[in-house]
Design brief:
By secondary structure, this protein is mainly beta. It has 3 helices and 14 strands. The longest helix has 19 residues, at 2-20.
Amino acid sequence: MKKFAVILLVFMVVGACKNEFEPPLNESIYGHEYYPLEVGKFRIYRVDSIQFDLGANDLPIQDSSTYYVRDDYVETFKDQTGLDVFRIERYRSPDPGGPWAIQDVVTQSRTVNQAYYSENNLRLINLVFPVEKGIRWDGNAFIKDDIIVFIRGESLEMFKGWEYEVLSVDSSEVVGDITFDQVATIQQANNNNAIEFRYSMEKYAKGVGLIFRHREIMDSYCKYIGNNEPCIGKAWREKAGRGFIMRETLIAHK
């Protein structure tokens, strides 16, 4: 019995030594570089926007604009779980060189397996790690699908029917005037019916982060007048009575 105990102890010691000298897990397999977080970094985007509303006689109108947004990573703090949260100040300007006026404040954070983005008390799971083609997840797990947002003062169920999926990984793409060697494309929503259209897509580049976002969130004006006949056969840009189309394209970063 004593001999068995000695042999068992030897195996335990050898096993412990083996684990101690095993190389650490290579974290590059997760793809955290797609969602880099660092104080002092900034990104500037060109934003092309179309907003839809109902005008006189309940007919749709639209308002187009182009402006620039700058994201500055200014500081970090700990949340209630001890996770590092990055505070990002968003500035807006009609010119890519400024002057900049503060627009709002958003936050980003990241665990080993998930990346988070919070704006106006809405928390989204932008990415899951490892970043692999075909992976799907509930990116809106922290909010309700029927939550109301307001566009031009009008209510809209923006996040209805979203389902996140990685469409491609490590592909080379040109976004704006910049070439990126390793890009991941995330589809967040792509569904529509006769009265609602929901589309959202984001692209992330390794070592940079978000480089492109395209969203089309629209309700037909026929939804609000209670008669779908006037909208039959019309393109969404013709029949949208509420919502927006927005593209954010990276033009500079540090």
